């Protein structure tokens, strides 16, 4: 990747209501405009999981206004890195893209206590991703 290209990352999970929303929010929060961030789901929910919104607010990241989005072929094609989080083979695969699969528990139907360790693991992985694709200076 050249210095003039902003890497684009797409986070995908089935409902786009938990894991992918947290990951996208952390990446935006940590990398700012050094990375283009998208998230989507193969079967998006109507709203973001309230326990996920609460868990993110605890670490100063507001995702209350986020809305789950449907996964499109165009979103995958426009991304350099595609990170799946339990959506399996519903994600279209294109040559030349980097694919990562982060095995993470699904926070759906769980309270904020159960979401916190998932949130913390996602933050750790996103920090590593930032260091890899968009290091400072």
Automatic annotation (TrEMBL):
Biological-process GO terms, alphabetical: response to arsenic-containing substance
Coiled-coil segments: none
Family matches, as InterPro entries: Ptyr_pPase, Ptyr_pPase_sf
Entry keyword set: Arsenical resistance
Domain of life according to the entry: Bacteria
Record domain Phosphotyrosine protein phosphatase I: where: 7-132
Name the record gives this protein: Arsenate reductase ArsC
């Amino acid at each position: 990747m050249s210095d003039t290209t902003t890497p684009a990352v797409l986070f995908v999970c089935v409902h786009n209501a938990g894991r992918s929303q947290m990951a996208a929010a952390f990446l935006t929060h940590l990398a700012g405009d050094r990375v283009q961030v998208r998230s989507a789901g193969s079967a998006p929910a109507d709203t973001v999981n309230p326990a996920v919104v609460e868990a993110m607010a605890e670490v100063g990241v507001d995702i209350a206004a986020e809305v789950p989005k449907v996964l499109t072929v165009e979103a995958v094609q426009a991304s350099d890195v595609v990170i799946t989080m339990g959506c399996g083979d519903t994600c279209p695969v294109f040559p030349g893209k980097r694919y990562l699969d982060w095995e993470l528990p699904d926070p759906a139907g769980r309270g904020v206590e159960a979401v916190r360790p998932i949130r913390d693991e996602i933050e750790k992985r996103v920090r590593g991703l930032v260091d890899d694709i968009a290091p400072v200076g």
